[in-house]
Automatic annotation (TrEMBL):
Family stated for the protein in its record: Belongs to the cytochrome c oxidase subunit 6A family.
Name the record gives this protein: Cytochrome c oxidase subunit
Gene Ontology molecular function: enzyme regulator activity; oxidoreductase activity
InterPro entries documented for this protein: Cyt_c_oxidase_su6a (IPR001349), Cyt_c_oxidase_su6a_CS (IPR018507), Cyt_c_oxidase_su6a_sf (IPR036418)
Pfam annotation, one family: COX6A
Any single GO BP term: mitochondrial electron transport, cytochrome c to oxygen
Protein's membrane topology: Single-pass membrane protein
Phylogenetic placement of the source organism: Eukaryota, Metazoa, Ecdysozoa, Arthropoda, Hexapoda
Subcellular localization, as worded in the UniProt entry: Mitochondrion inner membrane
């Protein structure tokens, strides 16, 4: 009789532990399939459309460089950069980034 009660109690406790886990409770075992489908059919196309929109908007606009104004508080070089001639930043673009004396193309 004791072994039957012990076995019944053990089975009852195992079922209670299994039912208390959120992953197995409520019969929502296939939730990952929904998120996988949403990722492939909603998220990736949305990112792709956003990239296409940004690319096409960039192609339509004509970007003109702002005129150089030698403000005294901009482009202050108290110490030379350790590369090149010391005036250009590491990611220098001669069409967009001005030196302290002006754009390189204007010289």
């Amino acid at each position: 009789m004791a072994s039957i009660l012990h076995r019944a109690a053990t089975l009852y406790l195992k079922n209670q532990v299994r039912a208390s886990h959120a992953a197995t409770a409520g019969g929502h075992g296939g939730g990952y399939k929904l998120w996988k489908k949403l990722t492939f059919f909603v998220a990736f196309p949305a990112v792709g459309l956003g990239m296409l929109n940004a690319y096409l908007a960039h192609q339509e606009e004509h970007h003109e460089r702002p005129p150089f104004v030698p403000y005294e508080y901009l482009r202050i070089r108290t110490k030379r950069f350790p590369w090149g001639d010391g005036q250009k930043s590491l990611f220098h673009n001669p069409h967009v980034n001005a030196l302290p004396t002006g754009y390189e193309d204007d010289h």
